[in-house]
Design a protein that fits this description.
Length: 83
């Protein structure tokens, strides 16, 4: 599992991969304004152990998308758009 801690306005406009994972795990871990555009990929967005994923939309075409919040994690304003 990859853990991100975002404190900047860095954006991922398009990712080319078979598997894309955004994970905020642990208190203080936060991903904000980091949208994912995926085509034919397996996408996971996970917030756990009080981590936060905020305003990180997923746009998917022919993709499998999962969002999960556990153990006090928050996923907020992170819609999934299927095309």
């Amino acid at each position: 599992m990859i853990t991100y801690r975002m404190e900047s306005n860095r954006k991922q406009e398009h990712a080319v991969a078979n598997r894309i994972t955004q994970s905020a795990a642990g208190p203080g871990s936060r991903i904000a304004t980091s949208p994912i555009n995926a085509t034919s990929a397996d996408v996971d967005q996970v917030a756990e152990s009080r981590g936060q994923i905020l305003n990180s939309r997923i746009t998917a075409e022919s993709a499998t998308v999962r969002q999960k919040a556990a153990d006090g994690g928050i996923i907020e304003d992170s819609s999934i758009i299927a095309q």
